[in-house]
Design brief:
heterotetramer, A alpha/beta (260), B mainly alpha (353), C mainly alpha (290), D alpha/beta (396), A: 260 residues, alpha/beta, four-stranded antiparallel beta sheet, 11 helices, 10 strands, D: 396 residues, Rossmann fold, 2 domains, 13 helices
Chain lengths: 260, 353, 290, 396
Amino acid sequence: MATDGILKVKNIETLYGLIMAIRGVSLEVQEGQIVCILGANGAGKTTILKTIMGLLEDQPDKGTIEFMGKRIDGKDAEEIVHLGISYVPEGREVFPELSVEENLKMGAYTRKDPKGVKEDYNRVISHFPILAERKSQWAGTLSGGEQQMLAIGRALMARPKLLMLDEPSLGLSPILVHEIFRIIKTINGEGTTILLVEQNAKMALKISDYGFVLENGRIVAANTPKILLEDEDVKEFYLGIRSEESVKGYQRWKRKKRWR
Amino acid sequence: MDMKRDYYEDIELFKSTTILICSILFLIFLAVLPWLIEKYHPLGMSIYIVNLITVHALVAIGLNILVGYTGQISMGHAGFFAIGAFTTVIFVLNWSFPLWIALPIAGFVSSGFGFILGLPALRLKGPYLAIATLGFGMTITTIIKHMEFFGGRMGLQAPKLHLFGAPMKDIHYYYMIMVIAVLMVIGATKLIKTRVGRAFIAIRDSDIAAEAMGVNLTYYKTLAFAVSAFYTGIGGGLYAFILGFINPESFHLIMSITFLAMVVVGGLGSIMGSIAGAALMTYLDIKLQAIQDIPVIGAALLNFSQKYMSVGGISNIAVIVYGLIMILIVLFEPLGIFGFWIRTKKYWKTWPF
Amino acid sequence: MFGQLIVSGLAVGACYALLALAMVIIYKTSEVLNFAQGEMAMVSTFVAFTILDAYHVPFLWAASLTFLFAILLGIFFEIVFLRQAKDPTVLGLIIITLGFEMILMGFAGWKWGPDQRSFPFPVSNVETYDIGGLLISKINFWTIVISVVLMFILFLFFRYTKLGIAMRATQQNPLAARVMGIRTKWILSFTWAISSIVGAAAGMLIAALGVLDPPMMMDPLLKGFASGVLGGMTSLPGTAVGGAILGIIENLFGGYISLAFKSVVAFAIIVLVLCIKPSGLLAKHYVKKV
Amino acid sequence: MIKRVSVFLCVAILSTFLLSTQSSAQKVRGVTDTEILIGQWGPQTGPAAPWGAVARGTDLLVKIINEEGGIHGRKFKYFLRDDSYQPAKTKAIAKEFVEQIGVFAVVGGVGVACGMTARDYLMENKVPWCGPVTGVYEWITPIQKYLFAIYPLYDDEAFNLTGYLHEKLGYKKIAMFYQNDDYGKQGVMGVERYLLKKKISLVAKVSAEVTDRDLSTHALKLKNSGAEAVIMWTMPTHAALILAETAKIGFKPQWATSNTLSDSALMMQITKGLWAGMINSFFGELPDSNHPLMVKYREWHKKLAPQERWGVFYYAGIIFAEPFFEGVRRAGRNLTPETWISAMETLKNWQGIGPPISYSKPNHPMDRQGGKHVFYGKVKPDGNIQRLTDWMQITK
């Protein structure tokens, strides 16, 4: 790996009470890339993002997180946003009783340059024209896809250097998923580094420059999408492609074992 | 934990012989308690205070069925308490019913009002329910105050009860109240464990989900109000007799709040917790006022009070301490005294480790 | 008589609305029903009284110092008590505020004693303005003005300023608010400070209307709470409407039907209104998905 | 850490309670060779707390008597308990007095409901009770052997006050403003009793709930009645509120009120001067009176309790306790409830700083009603009182 990563996570451990959710994860995101983290339910994907974002109190328990050469572990979410990381939480989490416009305004909460905010507002609108139509509607009344767009747009309003997306495809129709991923790619093309957490491995790997596979709080595989796509385990567990000759159960057990 | 192999095993009252023996020992303890108290006055207790605690415990259990098990807030239970008290006294005084008939009647009258209050509660939540119940409590006392039938503003003198021709004393009231209380506690424990209780808990956790699973919300919510009001009404009836004189002014909002505090301090969703909460809060309420009589501290406080505060204000420390205890228990032991008990039990079970 | 009843109803409604405003601000951002609001206002008013009594400074000076005290009191309560509660229930929070109410009540009784006092206020509570034959006392008039102005300022604040929107955002989704870089803890303290100031203003007006003593806020607080609920508990214009309706109905009921039940008619109306519109008159409520 | 400290504190407080309880066993409850124990409850906290000054006033009298060497070689030990005006607490306090402390007698005690919960219990246990601080018939009907009432009856007082307004001052249209509780209701009863006798009726009868803080409608009703005189039977807060509200709408009748509001210094202050002109009845000497006993008490007050305000409620605590001590004095060294009662029954027009007190053997309820006199005064604009009458009997 190159050493000029915009985000460097070194050996972090995160506890939920007494349960260790992340057991020593290291990853690195290069500037301008799309990096995805794959993993099953409960593997700890969201926890990693939350830990990076400083949303979990007194976490990470161990390890360091560096963003653009600065230690950010142990800092408050507010400060981290200020440094240039934006986070789109799982399940959209828009402000239901604020209008779409107010939601976007909140995205730029930490910024003090009205002119730049205006520019970004126009940029977001150009990505998601539907939001302009729904400008004064309560965000809670939008459809799932529109809410997802709003959540991404809202995160972009902070003009982040790094955008972290948590399961943007969750609960959306296939057409909308395509649309969302297309927009993610466009945003990346405009110079925003993206860290993506997904269960939809196929779509995620298609647009990513690098991928990590997470299981039980550990990174079990890390490589470029091309290599990952050819990995037998990834194929079987995340893409649903099963080798014809495998014996049910036995194969599964054996594969898992190899990862550990 | 023992395994439950059968549904009936779960609703059985005495789960094992140990518990049976403990229960019998506890009943014996209750039976000899008045003698102990009369002789030694431990902690400055008197039988009267124990009676008051028992009555409050009934109310707290009733309120807990509503608040702790069904998740509906009520800030108007002093209203049901007043209904119970006045109904009992009226029936005994004006129509010379014997107490053992008047008391259940009071309970049912009160639960009728509970049913009525339960109807708007079907649609209300949070602050909206709080204000509706609060208004109910205040309206009831105002109505009572304005009807000469209820003694008007002067209040009513509860008739003296007689036992074998002699007027009943605190100790007689104690046994009467205790028998009723034990029966009602058993009733509440049973109720919670049956289908009705599970429906209540389902409503507390999520009423929409409960409805989706086929729990009839209208029925169970109003039932919860009615049951809760029944317990409170019976409590009120007994209260009238241990006090001897009832006046609508004394069933005010602060009383409703004290009941809520008992439930929360004792532990939401725990019958035993309610009893403990009622005991603690009633005891503190009565005894904290003698704060200046505590050796050493009392004199120092009095001195401080007269130097820096107002001259007669020292009793207010009791109010402050009472409020502080309410806050501290909610902050540090969200499950109340019941939570404290569970932790102690756990600690001793795993003691050497 | 009818006109006069309406006018005095509006005047008393304005007091209710001010207290409701203070409660609604807190409910809007943190969903806490603050039953200590009245006592916070009462203690603040006593502080104003003490400053005026001891130092004879101009009223505005004393009021400013009192507002400063109110800010500290609000923040103190938020940080020392409420924030310490770990995943509290709605009821638990209510009990905390009730406990704080008792502490303040006890403190006021301890420090200032139970005697009634007259609160020196620059506007007379007896002199009146004559508006087309209807008499309104100067203090009532100014109470209405102050309530309306405060309400309007706060409405604009919540509607159009970044901080105001952030406060609403914090209530609706604290996690997302943090992700936006909003300092939610700071926002909560700020909310308590504002609400405490509004409450202190209401307390001083109510004391000036009558007398100053520790239980003076019990009735106004309940009525304020009632108007807040009537208006919808999250809506600022709602508090104004709720307060006015409550004040007028109370007075008309007292004037034409029965004085005896005047003080509880408010609650009957509320129950009726809530049965028809469960979230109050002016609240649009977004139904959370289960 | 905080948790541990608070747990420790709780345990400490509870255990001090445990240690502080005492019990005593003598021949006569509460009387030893050197000491007499007496008790009183009174609201020191809560909405009724202004009345708590009464119980502290009694404390002053006890201290004065002890400083002067006690009575017949015995000094007094006084227990003051706060019941917050809640009957349930009052009864607990009464039980504590009898069962745990063992008092000889109860002196004073504010509140009808509070006192009524304790009355039967005290009577059954033969505890002498002197001077409950409310003037209602409940204390004397049915006649209680051990209960000696002092406070002039509200009902009779209102009857007499209406008579004074009607006959002496010639007011025809009289209205009533009262507080909706036992106290206010007794006032209405008295006023209506008088007017019924004269075959006229009240032009308006306006009541306020105890918790009301908005009296504008009440004021309008009073104004619309066109009353020339209004009798007020309320607590200080409502008095201040109604005076302000009526002044607002330009209604200025002759006001008259009961002795409960006879603390004109306080009333002048909280009404911002509107109290001037009030016709007031009084059950005790005026605060600045030159009565020798008042002078003496004021001197002791300066010495023993200078922080207390010398208000009417405060020295009412002396008024309601004076006859008790006179009874103890007359009972002599052999003090039992019975000797005390016989001594009390010898009081005939005995006067301290309150009304003349007379008792006799209990044949008629009024034989246990000590105070039967009040006097009237008018509040001058400077807050002082112009005495209108001398002590005059108000009962039939």
